[in-house]
Specification:
The protein is mainly alpha-helical and about 325 residues long. The protein is built from eleven helices and no strands. The two termini are about 15 Å apart.
């Protein structure tokens, strides 16, 4: 390209970036983190309200409650007051999740627009085979670097949506069932308060514990294969390809384990809340989800401290 062509190209991309900039600045990582924090705080609030409602239900039953339905328990003032607070928290959670969903969707849409414009710039730069220095071309390169930085930030922002604990995504949908279950548990405890609740088989070390170990084992293989892939991808791409395929296959297996863990967490949410082993079980769920997140990042960006960079980030 000659200088005049690059001048026109620079003007064109500058105009497109100016048009896109307000949108890129409107939806930010800071706002996404704030919205996620609100949901996480709500989770803690719900836990406290649930605990109070359980205590009120048990107290009502032990005080002589003869009914077995929600309507019967609502005649008890302490139970009714506790449920009213939990009802409010449930509605607030739904509102906060909707705000986070909307923001993350906007971040994703903006990230895609930033990437498309950055790729158009990359294409124009790659098409220029001359080695002559050109001020406008360098300006376009810097413009693209800035866009890619915004793309990465917006991508990370919309991924925060996946950090919402799975049980919160179905909390409102399962709320009525949860209340029914809570009353049944209160009555069961009232009849036999010494009875120790047993950990459901799918949540024992023989099942959930093995899922954690399998996810960790697969994650180690992902790291090993991606390290080999990055070491060979530039000099021997043919030899590097099989390692990438192995890593992709292992990440798919970890994703399947994570999906299964999420399903178990949803299915046994009410039971987990009653167990003394609750914190350890939740810690295992979190471990599996974090293992998937780390492995996906390694698959996408390469192993930590890798010197090689993704091909899309190479220009000129």
């Amino acid at each position: 390209m000659i200088l005049d062509d690059w001048s026109k190209t620079f003007i064109k991309f500058s105009a497109e970036l100016r048009k896109l900039t307000p949108e890129l600045q409107k939806y930010t990582m800071d706002d996404a983190e704030t919205l996620l924090k609100a949901v996480q705080d709500r989770d803690s609030d719900l836990e406290k309200q649930e605990k109070k409602l359980r205590a009120a239900a048990l107290a009502a039953y032990e005080a002589g409650m003869t009914g077995t339905k929600l309507a019967d328990f609502l005649k008890d003032k302490d139970f009714a007051d506790a449920k009213k607070l939990l009802d409010t928290s449930c509605k607030l959670l739904a509102s906060e999740l909707k705000l986070l969903d909307t923001h993350c969707d906007k971040c994703r849409a903006s990230a895609n627009k930033a990437y498309e414009l950055a790729q158009a710039m990359a294409k124009a730069i790659a098409a220029d085979k001359t080695k002559d220095k050109n001020l406008e071309r360098e300006k376009v390169k810097k413009m693209r670097e800035g866009l890619m930085a915004q793309f990465e930030e917006l991508t990370n922002a919309y991924k925060l949506r996946y950090k919402v604990p799975p049980h919160l995504n179905v909390y409102e949908e399962q709320y009525d069932k949860f209340i029914t279950h809570l009353i049944a548990k209160a009555m069961k405890k009232g009849k036999d308060p010494e009875k120790q609740l047993q950990v459901p088989v799918p949540l024992t070390d023989k099942k959930l514990g093995m899922m954690v170990k399998e996810a960790d084992h697969l994650a180690a293989q992902v790291l090993a294969n991606m390290t080999k892939n990055f070491a060979l991808k530039d000099s021997k791409p043919t030899a590097a390809a099989p390692f990438l395929k192995k890593a992709e296959a292992d990440v798919a297996k970890i994703r399947k384990i994570s999906d299964e863990a999420s399903a178990l967490e949803r299915k046994f949410k009410n039971e987990i809340a009653e167990l003394k082993e609750r914190l350890e079980i939740l810690k295992q769920f979190k471990s599996i989800h974090e293992t998937l997140e780390k492995s996906e990042k390694i698959l996408e960006e390469g192993p930590p401290n890798a010197k090689a960079k993704a091909k899309d980030d190479k220009v000129g």
